Amino acid sequence: MAQSTTAGRTRPDLTAGGGLTRRLDALIGRIERAEALDTVAGPVAALEKKLGEKLPWWRNLASGTFLGHPLHPLLVAVPIGSWSASLLFDLAGDRRGARRLVGVGLLAALPTMASGGSDWAYTNGAEQRVGLVHAGANGLSLLAFGLSWQARRRGHHGQGVLWSLVGATAVSVGGWLGGHLSYALGVGVDTTAFQHSTAEWTEVARSEDVTEGALRAADVGGVPLVLTRLPGGTVIALADRCSHRGAPLHEGELDDGCLVCPWHRSVFATDGAVVRGPATRPQQSYAVLERDGAVSVRIADEPRSLRTNPVGP
Ligand code: FES
Predict the structure, then answer these.
(1) Would you state the pLDDT for residue 176?
(2) What pLDDT shows up at residue 313?
(3) Which atom of ligand 1 is closest in space to residue 265's alpha carbon?
(4) Labelling 68: which of 21, 105, 158, 276 has CA 20 to 30 A away?
(5) Do 226 and 276 share a domain, yes or no?
(6) Which atom of ligand 1 is nearest to the CA of 122?
(7) Rounded distance from Cα 144 to ligand 1 centre (Å)
Protein backbone atom coordinates (compact mmCIF):
# COMPACT_ATOMS: atom_id res chain seq x y z
CA MET A 1 0.00 0.00 0.00
CA ALA A 2 1.31 3.47 -0.86
CA GLN A 3 2.08 5.70 2.12
CA SER A 4 1.88 9.45 2.65
CA THR A 5 3.80 11.42 5.24
CA THR A 6 2.20 14.21 7.26
CA ALA A 7 4.12 16.04 10.02
CA GLY A 8 6.56 13.16 10.32
CA ARG A 9 3.82 10.48 10.52
CA THR A 10 3.35 7.85 7.82
CA ARG A 11 -0.22 7.01 6.80
CA PRO A 12 -1.73 4.65 4.23
CA ASP A 13 -2.70 6.37 0.98
CA LEU A 14 -6.48 5.94 0.76
CA THR A 15 -7.03 8.50 -2.00
CA ALA A 16 -8.65 7.43 -5.26
CA GLY A 17 -5.83 6.32 -7.58
CA GLY A 18 -3.64 5.67 -4.54
CA GLY A 19 -1.88 2.40 -3.82
CA LEU A 20 -4.87 0.63 -2.25
CA THR A 21 -7.20 1.52 -5.14
CA ARG A 22 -4.67 0.31 -7.70
CA ARG A 23 -4.18 -2.99 -5.91
CA LEU A 24 -7.90 -3.60 -5.57
CA ASP A 25 -8.43 -2.75 -9.25
CA ALA A 26 -5.63 -5.12 -10.25
CA LEU A 27 -7.15 -7.88 -8.10
CA ILE A 28 -10.66 -7.47 -9.49
CA GLY A 29 -9.22 -7.27 -13.01
CA ARG A 30 -7.62 -10.67 -12.48
CA ILE A 31 -10.96 -12.11 -11.36
CA GLU A 32 -12.75 -10.55 -14.34
CA ARG A 33 -10.27 -12.19 -16.74
CA ALA A 34 -10.06 -15.58 -14.99
CA GLU A 35 -11.64 -17.68 -17.74
CA ALA A 36 -10.98 -20.84 -15.72
CA LEU A 37 -13.96 -19.82 -13.57
CA ASP A 38 -16.24 -20.28 -16.60
CA THR A 39 -15.97 -24.05 -16.33
CA VAL A 40 -17.91 -23.84 -13.06
CA ALA A 41 -19.99 -20.75 -13.77
CA GLY A 42 -21.37 -21.88 -17.14
CA PRO A 43 -23.04 -25.16 -16.08
CA VAL A 44 -24.36 -23.72 -12.79
CA ALA A 45 -25.86 -20.70 -14.56
CA ALA A 46 -27.41 -22.96 -17.20
CA LEU A 47 -29.10 -25.00 -14.46
CA GLU A 48 -30.41 -21.86 -12.77
CA LYS A 49 -31.77 -20.56 -16.08
CA LYS A 50 -33.46 -23.89 -16.75
CA LEU A 51 -35.18 -23.60 -13.38
CA GLY A 52 -36.34 -20.07 -14.30
CA GLU A 53 -37.76 -21.31 -17.60
CA LYS A 54 -39.65 -24.14 -15.90
CA LEU A 55 -40.93 -21.93 -13.10
CA PRO A 56 -41.58 -18.39 -14.43
CA TRP A 57 -43.21 -17.42 -11.10
CA TRP A 58 -39.93 -18.26 -9.38
CA ARG A 59 -37.97 -16.15 -11.87
CA ASN A 60 -40.33 -13.19 -11.31
CA LEU A 61 -40.06 -13.61 -7.53
CA ALA A 62 -36.30 -14.16 -7.28
CA SER A 63 -35.45 -11.39 -9.77
CA GLY A 64 -37.69 -8.86 -8.02
CA THR A 65 -39.83 -8.28 -11.14
CA PHE A 66 -42.87 -7.86 -8.88
CA LEU A 67 -41.03 -5.07 -6.99
CA GLY A 68 -39.76 -3.11 -9.99
CA HIS A 69 -36.21 -3.53 -8.67
CA PRO A 70 -33.88 -6.45 -8.03
CA LEU A 71 -34.86 -8.27 -4.83
CA HIS A 72 -31.34 -9.31 -3.84
CA PRO A 73 -30.03 -5.92 -2.57
CA LEU A 74 -33.14 -5.58 -0.41
CA LEU A 75 -32.73 -9.02 1.20
CA VAL A 76 -28.99 -8.63 1.76
CA ALA A 77 -29.62 -6.15 4.57
CA VAL A 78 -31.12 -8.83 6.84
CA PRO A 79 -28.24 -11.35 7.17
CA ILE A 80 -25.58 -8.64 7.16
CA GLY A 81 -27.51 -6.60 9.72
CA SER A 82 -28.18 -9.60 11.96
CA TRP A 83 -24.61 -10.85 11.88
CA SER A 84 -23.18 -7.37 12.47
CA ALA A 85 -25.56 -6.85 15.39
CA SER A 86 -24.59 -10.25 16.83
CA LEU A 87 -20.98 -9.08 17.09
CA LEU A 88 -22.17 -6.01 19.02
CA PHE A 89 -24.16 -8.29 21.34
CA ASP A 90 -20.95 -10.31 21.84
CA LEU A 91 -19.16 -7.11 22.81
CA ALA A 92 -21.99 -6.25 25.21
CA GLY A 93 -21.79 -9.75 26.74
CA ASP A 94 -25.30 -10.87 25.70
CA ARG A 95 -24.46 -14.39 24.53
CA ARG A 96 -28.05 -15.55 24.07
CA GLY A 97 -28.97 -12.49 22.01
CA ALA A 98 -25.84 -12.92 19.89
CA ARG A 99 -26.63 -16.58 19.18
CA ARG A 100 -30.20 -15.74 18.18
CA LEU A 101 -29.03 -13.03 15.81
CA VAL A 102 -26.53 -15.40 14.20
CA GLY A 103 -29.46 -17.79 13.66
CA VAL A 104 -31.67 -15.07 12.16
CA GLY A 105 -28.85 -14.19 9.76
CA LEU A 106 -28.50 -17.84 8.72
CA LEU A 107 -32.21 -18.16 7.95
CA ALA A 108 -32.27 -14.88 6.03
CA ALA A 109 -29.14 -15.79 4.05
CA LEU A 110 -30.88 -18.63 2.21
CA PRO A 111 -33.49 -16.58 0.27
CA THR A 112 -30.87 -13.86 -0.15
CA MET A 113 -28.49 -16.24 -1.89
CA ALA A 114 -31.32 -17.74 -3.96
CA SER A 115 -32.34 -14.33 -5.32
CA GLY A 116 -28.69 -13.40 -5.99
CA GLY A 117 -28.23 -16.69 -7.84
CA SER A 118 -31.15 -15.87 -10.10
CA ASP A 119 -29.68 -12.43 -10.95
CA TRP A 120 -26.28 -13.96 -11.52
CA ALA A 121 -27.51 -16.64 -13.93
CA TYR A 122 -28.37 -13.96 -16.51
CA THR A 123 -24.89 -12.41 -16.56
CA ASN A 124 -21.94 -13.29 -18.79
CA GLY A 125 -18.15 -13.11 -18.92
CA ALA A 126 -16.54 -10.80 -16.38
CA GLU A 127 -19.80 -10.20 -14.50
CA GLN A 128 -20.41 -13.90 -14.14
CA ARG A 129 -16.85 -14.57 -12.92
CA VAL A 130 -16.97 -11.82 -10.31
CA GLY A 131 -20.45 -13.02 -9.33
CA LEU A 132 -19.14 -16.54 -8.81
CA VAL A 133 -16.39 -15.35 -6.45
CA HIS A 134 -18.95 -13.09 -4.71
CA ALA A 135 -21.18 -16.15 -4.17
CA GLY A 136 -18.18 -18.18 -2.97
CA ALA A 137 -17.27 -15.57 -0.35
CA ASN A 138 -20.87 -15.39 0.81
CA GLY A 139 -21.12 -19.18 0.87
CA LEU A 140 -18.04 -19.21 3.09
CA SER A 141 -19.65 -16.67 5.40
CA LEU A 142 -22.77 -18.84 5.61
CA LEU A 143 -20.63 -21.83 6.58
CA ALA A 144 -18.63 -19.86 9.15
CA PHE A 145 -21.72 -18.37 10.81
CA GLY A 146 -23.32 -21.83 10.75
CA LEU A 147 -20.31 -23.20 12.65
CA SER A 148 -20.48 -20.18 14.95
CA TRP A 149 -24.13 -20.90 15.77
CA GLN A 150 -23.38 -24.56 16.40
CA ALA A 151 -20.40 -23.78 18.66
CA ARG A 152 -22.46 -21.25 20.63
CA ARG A 153 -25.30 -23.75 21.04
CA ARG A 154 -22.86 -26.23 22.52
CA GLY A 155 -21.66 -23.61 24.94
CA HIS A 156 -18.30 -22.93 23.21
CA HIS A 157 -18.76 -19.20 23.14
CA GLY A 158 -15.15 -18.25 22.36
CA GLN A 159 -15.08 -20.61 19.40
CA GLY A 160 -18.42 -19.19 18.24
CA VAL A 161 -17.03 -15.66 18.29
CA LEU A 162 -13.98 -16.75 16.32
CA TRP A 163 -16.17 -18.35 13.62
CA SER A 164 -18.29 -15.18 13.56
CA LEU A 165 -15.17 -13.13 12.88
CA VAL A 166 -14.24 -15.46 10.01
CA GLY A 167 -17.80 -15.10 8.68
CA ALA A 168 -17.72 -11.32 9.01
CA THR A 169 -14.47 -11.17 7.03
CA ALA A 170 -15.91 -13.38 4.28
CA VAL A 171 -19.16 -11.41 4.07
CA SER A 172 -17.16 -8.16 3.82
CA VAL A 173 -15.23 -9.54 0.85
CA GLY A 174 -18.54 -10.70 -0.66
CA GLY A 175 -20.02 -7.23 -0.10
CA TRP A 176 -17.08 -5.53 -1.80
CA LEU A 177 -17.45 -7.81 -4.82
CA GLY A 178 -21.23 -7.24 -4.82
CA GLY A 179 -20.60 -3.49 -4.88
CA HIS A 180 -18.27 -3.95 -7.86
CA LEU A 181 -20.93 -5.98 -9.66
CA SER A 182 -23.53 -3.23 -9.27
CA TYR A 183 -21.55 -0.01 -9.39
CA ALA A 184 -18.71 -0.91 -11.76
CA LEU A 185 -20.25 -3.62 -13.95
CA GLY A 186 -23.86 -2.39 -13.86
CA VAL A 187 -25.53 -5.68 -12.93
CA GLY A 188 -29.10 -4.89 -11.82
CA VAL A 189 -28.98 -1.39 -13.34
CA ASP A 190 -31.60 -0.35 -15.92
CA THR A 191 -29.48 -0.29 -19.09
CA THR A 192 -31.49 2.66 -20.44
CA ALA A 193 -30.93 4.84 -17.36
CA PHE A 194 -28.31 7.01 -19.05
CA GLN A 195 -29.89 7.28 -22.47
CA HIS A 196 -30.74 10.74 -23.76
CA SER A 197 -34.36 11.71 -24.17
CA THR A 198 -35.90 14.32 -26.38
CA ALA A 199 -38.81 16.68 -25.78
CA GLU A 200 -38.91 17.61 -29.51
CA TRP A 201 -40.96 15.64 -32.01
CA THR A 202 -38.39 13.84 -34.12
CA GLU A 203 -39.12 11.83 -37.25
CA VAL A 204 -37.83 8.28 -36.92
CA ALA A 205 -39.51 6.29 -39.73
CA ARG A 206 -41.87 6.44 -42.70
CA SER A 207 -45.37 5.14 -41.95
CA GLU A 208 -45.24 2.43 -44.60
CA ASP A 209 -42.12 0.94 -42.98
CA VAL A 210 -43.87 0.27 -39.64
CA THR A 211 -46.16 -2.69 -40.08
CA GLU A 212 -48.40 -4.79 -37.89
CA GLY A 213 -46.80 -7.93 -36.47
CA ALA A 214 -43.22 -6.81 -37.23
CA LEU A 215 -40.55 -5.15 -35.10
CA ARG A 216 -38.57 -2.36 -36.72
CA ALA A 217 -35.37 -0.77 -35.46
CA ALA A 218 -35.02 3.02 -35.53
CA ASP A 219 -33.14 5.63 -33.60
CA VAL A 220 -33.78 9.02 -32.13
CA GLY A 221 -30.69 11.17 -31.66
CA GLY A 222 -28.51 8.06 -31.45
CA VAL A 223 -30.79 6.26 -28.97
CA PRO A 224 -32.01 2.95 -30.42
CA LEU A 225 -35.77 2.43 -30.67
CA VAL A 226 -38.04 -0.45 -31.56
CA LEU A 227 -41.28 0.35 -33.41
CA THR A 228 -44.32 -1.72 -34.22
CA ARG A 229 -47.90 -1.17 -35.31
CA LEU A 230 -50.71 -2.55 -33.15
CA PRO A 231 -53.77 -4.26 -34.71
CA GLY A 232 -55.84 -1.04 -34.39
CA GLY A 233 -53.20 0.83 -36.43
CA THR A 234 -51.51 2.68 -33.55
CA VAL A 235 -47.72 2.81 -33.69
CA ILE A 236 -45.77 2.26 -30.47
CA ALA A 237 -42.13 3.13 -29.79
CA LEU A 238 -40.03 1.69 -26.97
CA ALA A 239 -36.34 1.89 -26.14
CA ASP A 240 -34.74 -0.88 -28.16
CA ARG A 241 -32.12 -1.75 -25.55
CA CYS A 242 -33.66 -4.21 -23.08
CA SER A 243 -33.65 -2.68 -19.60
CA HIS A 244 -32.36 -6.00 -18.20
CA ARG A 245 -29.00 -6.59 -19.88
CA GLY A 246 -29.25 -4.55 -23.05
CA ALA A 247 -30.45 -6.97 -25.74
CA PRO A 248 -31.75 -5.38 -28.98
CA LEU A 249 -35.50 -5.91 -28.65
CA HIS A 250 -36.09 -5.52 -32.39
CA GLU A 251 -34.36 -8.92 -32.75
CA GLY A 252 -36.95 -10.45 -30.42
CA GLU A 253 -40.50 -11.35 -31.28
CA LEU A 254 -44.11 -10.38 -30.77
CA ASP A 255 -46.15 -12.87 -28.79
CA ASP A 256 -49.73 -12.39 -27.72
CA GLY A 257 -49.46 -8.63 -28.15
CA CYS A 258 -46.24 -8.35 -26.11
CA LEU A 259 -42.55 -7.95 -26.98
CA VAL A 260 -40.29 -10.86 -26.03
CA CYS A 261 -36.59 -10.16 -25.44
CA PRO A 262 -34.29 -12.31 -27.60
CA TRP A 263 -31.73 -12.96 -24.85
CA HIS A 264 -33.50 -13.98 -21.64
CA ARG A 265 -37.14 -13.99 -22.73
CA SER A 266 -38.37 -11.11 -20.58
CA VAL A 267 -41.81 -10.04 -21.79
CA PHE A 268 -42.86 -6.39 -22.12
CA ALA A 269 -46.35 -4.99 -22.73
CA THR A 270 -46.73 -2.47 -25.54
CA ASP A 271 -46.60 0.37 -22.99
CA GLY A 272 -43.23 -0.95 -21.77
CA ALA A 273 -44.47 -2.56 -18.53
CA VAL A 274 -42.71 -5.79 -17.52
CA VAL A 275 -45.06 -8.75 -17.86
CA ARG A 276 -42.43 -11.38 -17.09
CA GLY A 277 -38.84 -11.20 -15.79
CA PRO A 278 -35.97 -11.51 -15.31
CA ALA A 279 -36.22 -7.79 -16.27
CA THR A 280 -37.37 -5.64 -13.37
CA ARG A 281 -37.58 -2.21 -15.02
CA PRO A 282 -40.12 -1.22 -17.70
CA GLN A 283 -38.95 -0.32 -21.18
CA GLN A 284 -38.78 3.40 -21.78
CA SER A 285 -41.87 4.31 -23.81
CA TYR A 286 -42.03 7.22 -26.28
CA ALA A 287 -45.01 9.31 -27.32
CA VAL A 288 -45.72 8.74 -31.03
CA LEU A 289 -47.18 11.11 -33.62
CA GLU A 290 -48.04 9.80 -37.06
CA ARG A 291 -48.72 12.53 -39.61
CA ASP A 292 -48.21 13.05 -43.36
CA GLY A 293 -46.78 9.55 -43.79
CA ALA A 294 -44.11 10.02 -41.09
CA VAL A 295 -43.72 8.55 -37.60
CA SER A 296 -42.27 10.97 -35.03
CA VAL A 297 -41.48 10.37 -31.35
CA ARG A 298 -40.62 12.28 -28.21
CA ILE A 299 -40.56 11.76 -24.46
CA ALA A 300 -42.74 14.28 -22.72
CA ASP A 301 -42.05 15.46 -19.19
CA GLU A 302 -38.97 13.28 -18.70
CA PRO A 303 -38.01 13.97 -15.08
CA ARG A 304 -34.74 12.05 -14.93
CA SER A 305 -31.80 14.40 -14.88
CA LEU A 306 -29.37 11.75 -16.13
CA ARG A 307 -31.48 11.41 -19.26
CA THR A 308 -32.19 15.06 -19.91
CA ASN A 309 -28.64 16.14 -19.10
CA PRO A 310 -26.41 13.05 -19.03
CA VAL A 311 -23.13 14.89 -18.69
CA GLY A 312 -24.33 17.90 -16.70
CA PRO A 313 -23.12 18.94 -13.24
S1 FES B 1 -31.45 -8.75 -21.88
FE2 FES B 1 -32.15 -10.09 -20.36
S3 FES B 1 -34.27 -10.17 -20.63
FE4 FES B 1 -33.61 -8.79 -22.13
Answers:
(1) 95
(2) 44
(3) 3
(4) 105
(5) yes
(6) 2
(7) 35
Which has the minimum average pLDDT: 15-19, 57-61, 216-220?
15-19
Whole-angstrom Cα distance, residue 118 to residue 63?
Answer: 6
Contact residues of ligand 1, CB 6 A cut-off: 122, 242, 244-247, 261, 263-264, 266, 278-279
CA of 96 from ligand 1 middle (Å) equals: 46
Ligand 1 mean position to 17 CA, how many Å? Answer: 34
Q: Do 148 and 233 sit in the same domain of this protein?
A: no
**CATH number of the domain residue 297 falls in:** 2.102.10.10
- Express each pLDDT in 155-202 by its tens digit: 999 999 999 999 999 999 999 999 999 999 999 999 988 887 778 899
Same domain, 150 and 238: no
Q: How far apart are CA 108 and CA 97, in angstroms?
A: 16
Residue 216 belongs to what domain range?
Answer: 202-308
Same-domain status, 82 and 171: yes
How much distance in Å is there from the Cα of 244 to the middle of ligand 1? 5
Across the range 212-229, mean pLDDT stands at 93
Residue 245 CA to ligand 1 center (angstroms) comes to: 5
CA angle 25, 27, 30 (to 5 degrees): 110
Q: Whose CA is nearest to atom 1 of ligand 1?
A: 245
Question: Per-residue b/e over 247-286, b at no fewer than 16 CB within 10 Å?
Answer: bbbbebeeeeebbbbbbbbbbbbbebebbbbbbbbbbbbb
